[in-house]
Each structure stands twice: as structure tokens, then as C-alpha cells.
Design goal:
80% of the residues lie in helices and 0% in strands. By secondary structure, the protein is mainly α. The chain has one domain (6-303). Helix 1 (6-28) runs antiparallel to helix 10.
């Protein structure tokens, strides 16, 4: 029996970390929608990525860095760390871990569309089929929830209107996908993923603080992070950070398409953990399982195109 390849092992670890993070976000969400753990996760990722960047740099030497690369990383941080992560946390708070994780399959959907519009990439037959499956995944998820609502039941116990949760998930996916394009530009100038993660999350945290000057909700989240630390949300931030680190490590060992496909299995790990830990607030429905399968199948077609 052959040993598991290092790249595959890192990708599996990344998927597990992201799944645990999804569930712990849902477990740690407080009644106030303003405090969902997004800010503390940005601080934790900045710290972990920064420490790892310094440690590896001291041991192996720092990679050359250009101002242009830093600007690309900062721009990516606005979209991935601020827009993508903040809105994803908001979607978990309103839809729950299982549904939000399923909706993360929209990330490659928008990535393909942006590749066509911005980079002039060609849409292959396989990619087109993958996009269709992702649209079907979203439709099945929403239709399943509506059927439950008409029957007097609900698959979730939302902390806010569910329709906002779906909107937040879509905005998050678009933010992540757009930010990945900018991060790719930055990595072309400076081959240092840890530096990119540190700069991006630092920019995201600074934007969060800047927004707090104008928004009482963000100000409350910043104050609560330090005044009333939440162990669940801290754990979510740590697991999300290691998920990113393992993802970058996997990319150094295996092709991006293989890594993306393995990490997309995160949704099934989230469904399993959510069923075990979140039964009082979330229900595992046939529509949710079908949506997850369609989303992963769509991802497989896109990365294999």
C-alpha cells in the first residue's frame, strides 16, 4: 500500500481545519449579530502567518519582495480578508455552518467567470458543465429550504433573515474569487504565500477597525473581541489560519487543481461535524446533501477542465 503523498496530506488537513472552523463559528456565534468572530479571526491569521513568515525567513532566508507585490497583497486583503471573510462569517451566523459551507462552492463559479471577463480565458465544455452544476446546487439548496418553510419547519434556526445569509454568502464568494486574482498577481512578483496572507489579513483587520469609526456594529465587535473573548470563535480563527497554511503547503507539493478538488471535500466534513455538534440549531436535509454533491461535482468538472 503506497503512502499518502505529502501534498494530498496537506490538502486533507486543510479541508479538516476549514470544516472545524465552520462548525466552531456556528457554535460560538453570540446573539448579537455584530459579534460573529470575523475580526478576531483576522487578528489570529495575521499573527500566525506573520510568526511563520519570520521563522521561515530567519531559518531559510527571506524571499525578495517588491512594492508592487505588497500592493497586490493589500488589494487581495481588501477582497478576501475583509469582504470575503467578514461576509462569510455573517452567512454562517444566519444560515449555519452546513449551508454556508455548501455555498462556498460558489467560489470557483465566480473564479471561472472572472477568468473569462478579466483574463480572457476560454470557457471549455467541462467548465461550462461545472458552472451549470453549481447553479443547480444553489437552486436545490434554496428550494429545499422553501419547501421546509412552507411545511412549517426550517432546516436552520437563523439569527437573522435567511435571505440575508444567502446574499452574504454570494458576496463572500465574489470577494474571495476576485481577491484570489489579485493574490495570484502578487505571488507572481513575490513567491511568498505567508507574506501574502499576513499582509492581506492585516489590511482586512485595519479596514475592520476603520469601519468601526463609522459603524456602531463594527465598533461593538472590536470592543467585544477584547472585553469578552469567545473561546469558540478564537478556536475558529486558529483553525481557519491553519487551514490556509496547510492549503499553501499543499500547493507547494501538488498541482492546484488536485489541491482545490481535495479541499472542496471540506463541505462533507462540515456536514458530518455539523450533524454531530449542531443538531439543535441545524438539520441535515436531503436537499442539503444533494446541493453539496452537486457543488463538489461542479468543482471537479471545473478543475479538471
Amino acid at each position: 500500500m503506497s503512502a499518502l503523498a505529502p501534498g494530498d496530506a496537506f490538502a486533507i488537513a486543510s479541508a479538516a481545519c476549514f470544516a472545524i472552523s465552520n462548525v466552531t463559528i456556528a457554535r460560538g456565534a453570540r446573539a448579537r449579530a455584530e459579534d460573529n468572530g470575523a475580526f478576531v479571526s483576522l487578528l489570529i491569521t495575521t499573527a500566525i502567518a506573520g510568526i511563520a513568515w519570520i521563522a521561515i525567513g530567519v531559518a531559510q532566508g527571506f524571499q525578495p519582495v517588491t512594492v508592487r507585490a505588497l500592493l497586490w497583497f493589500a488589494g487581495a486583503g481588501v477582497l478576501t480578508a475583509f469582504v470575503g471573510r467578514v461576509f462569510f462569517y455573517a452567512s454562517v451566523e444566519r444560515l449555519g455552518a452546513m449551508r454556508s459551507s455548501t455555498l462556498k462552492r460558489l467560489n470557483p463559479f465566480f473564479a471561472v467567470l472572472l477568468g473569462m471577463l478579466v483574463l480572457g480565458e476560454t470557457l471549455t465544455g467541462g467548465a461550462a458543465a461545472g458552472l451549470a452544476l453549481m447553479v443547480a446546487s444553489f437552486a436545490v439548496l434554496v428550494a429545499g429550504e422553501r419547501m421546509l418553510a412552507r411545511g412549517g419547519a426550517s432546516a436552520i434556526s437563523p439569527r437573522g433573515p435567511a435571505r440575508f445569509g444567502y446574499a452574504y454568502a454570494i458576496v463572500s464568494a465574489l470577494g474571495y474569487s476576485t481577491g484570489y486574482l489579485l493574490r495570484k498577481m502578487g505571488l507572481a512578483d513575490a513567491h511568498d504565500a505567508l507574506l501574502g496572507a499576513m499582509v492581506g489579513c492585516a489590511v482586512g483587520a485595519l479596514l475592520f477597525i476603520a469601519t468601526a469609526a463609522f459603524s456602531s456594529a463594527y465598533a461593538l465587535a472590536v470592543r467585544t473581541t477584547f472585553a469578552l473573548p469567545n473561546a469558540w470563535l478564537i478556536a475558529a480563527g486558529v483553525m481557519s489560519s491553519f487551514g490556509q497554511i496547510f492549503y499553501f503547503a499543499a500547493l507547494n507539493e501538488s498541482p492546484m487543481s488536485r489541491v482545490a478538488l481535495i479541499v472542496s471535500m471540506e463541505v462533507f466534513v462540515t456536514l458530518f461535524l455539523g450533524y454531530a455538534w449542531l443538531r439543535r440549531s441545524e438539520r441535515l436535509t436531503p436537499a442539503l446533501v444533494a446541493a453539496a454533491i452537486l457543488g463538489v461535482a461542479g468543482t471537479a468538472l471545473i478543475v479538471g477542465a
